[in-house]
Design goal:
The chain is α/β, with parallel strands linked by helices and about 190 residues long. The protein has helices at about 15-30, 75-80, 115-120, 125-140, 145-155, 165-180; strands at about 1-10, 30-40, 45-55, 65-70, 85-95, 110.
Amino acid sequence: MLEELIVAGFGGQGVLSLGMTLAYAGMVENKEISWMPSYGPEMRGGTANCMVIISDIKISSPIISCFDSAIVLNQPSMDKFAARIKPGGLLLYESGNIFKPSTRTDIDIIGIPATTEAFLMKNAKIMNMIILGAYLQLKPIVKHDAILEALKKVLPEKYHYLLVINEQALQKGAELVQLFKEQPVN
């Protein structure tokens, strides 16, 4: 198993913590992992992305130019990364922030309203876990329990009271993707 993923959006959307959680989950399962963040000087509102590689064998390089999957949270990231997904790959995007999704026909393209659902769950910061739950429903590269264990490492201890809502967000994402994956992209 080898999964090469890009997660991209604005700073403050939880891009890096989503990727870090996934990487830690890979470590929990004794997989080979790479997590390479990239972000601008702005704390919030600037661009941010990270490359995550999870594999059963040694990873030759953490730098990749084409991806098996992309999780895209804003329009500039859609414009930049959609063309770099390998044919047969997956593009999962936050449908409330992207008004012009890719029109590629050689990849699976699924948009879910993760931001709206996070607001309905009364915590905007769980949007990234909703989208991660959707991704793992489509590509179960790590187990649910490994993600929960990883969250204990990624979240500072003073925020461990948020583990329950993060678990609920993962489940909500898995449910949402089932609803939206059959709908065609406009």
